[in-house]
Design brief:
The complex is a heterodimer of chains A (189) and B (200).
Chain A: H1 3-18, E1 38-39, H2 44-50, E2 58-59, E3 67-73, H3 78-96, E4 104-111, H4 115-124, E5 131-134, H5 138-143, E6 147-148, E7 150-156, E8 162-169, H6 175-188
Parallel strand pairs in A: 3-4, 4-5
Antiparallel strand pairs in A: 1-2, 3-7, 7-8
Helix pairs in contact in A: 3-6
Chain B: H1 2-24, E1 28-29, E2 61-63, E3 69-71, E4 80-85, H2 94-102, H3 105-110, E5 113-119, H4 123-131, E6 139-142, H5 149-154, E7 165-170, E8 176-182, H6 190-198
Parallel strand pairs in B: 4-5, 5-6
Antiparallel strand pairs in B: 2-3, 4-7, 7-8
The chains are: A alpha/beta (189), B alpha/beta (200).
Chain lengths: 189, 200
Amino acid sequence: MNRKTYILTALMGLTILLAPLAVHAELLDVGEVLQGTILSAPDKRDGSYLGVTGNDDFSVRDIDADAVLIQYFSMYCPHCQADAPDTVALYELIEADEELSGSLKFIGVGIKNSEYEVNYFRDEYDIPFPMFPDETGEFMDDAGVRLTPTYMLIAREDSGEMVVVFTQVGKIDDPADFLEVLRQHLADW
Amino acid sequence: MKHDVFIQRVVPLLAAVTLVFLQAVSGVGAEFEEFIYDPGVLSPVDSELKVVVGDEAPDFTLPSITGTDITLSDYRGKSNVVLSFVPAAWTPVCSDQWPGYVIADELFREHNTTLIGITVDNIPTLFAWTREMGDIWFDVVSDFWPHGEVAETYGVLRTDGTSERALFLIDTEGIIRYIDVHDINERPDLGDLVEAMEAL
């Protein structure tokens, strides 16, 4: 084998090796489509909120809403723990909002967390909105999320695809202000 | 000569790119972003256990970040003990593991279990690091000097002087009932530890 062949072989090997690890190294930009993110079948209460019925896994694009706010969190992250009461307040503000209630849904995704850990977090802070485990980190990779908490607002295109409208890395701080930021981004979309 | 080119240029390239991709798949809490030193992906386990389930847990006395000494045998007849060894302060997965235990105090209490965190770092380092984690309700002790002596006794001292990411569950009689020497790059599932405490 000559040198060229060696390098070509090595590069081909590299490509094959890394194919399953092809992830978004950066957080998705506004305007990009959130692909993948197949969530496990919700229980009855979560299913009715999300408008998803049946016992099958579903995608974020199956959620019955014009827009979805996703919180990428970890039970193990102190900022997410500190942020939990504000996420509850934000959910309540959305549900009480004439314009956004029903059209904007809120979910949490526990990155690299087991189902046990997500449920523990949810119970600890009485989180009323649905939370799903992302044990393998697959959803985190779909969105290019690297830090927790990360908030990602996605909105539905005519094609049915969910497109990124707004992202924020870090805490909510003020739920009412944060809701206005979301409202503005949705209005501008 | 051709072999040299392969080894000198292509192998390091391959290794570097692989490392970059592997590093990219670990998530970190935003609050630690500026402080964390990322050692990259490490060999999952780099030591040989010297104790097994059913053994009496080797006793030790180590200084804690509160300024008191902690002796394992003091818990005999009183409570179970979980020893949580983590490799080193200010590293990605470790900065993630104990903050989870911060909100799990109820789980340990329910199972009459005392949690003790151990690393081979010195006290000032552990003090500064754990202050970033919120209200640490459990004891954190320093196995710094003689360096890693307790880790070595249990067989979880790695060849680079850090320790494994390991959990030992010890019952009220001082007997080891559960051991998880975990892949150093991954966080052990809290559910597995709770299951082990429930089984006591």
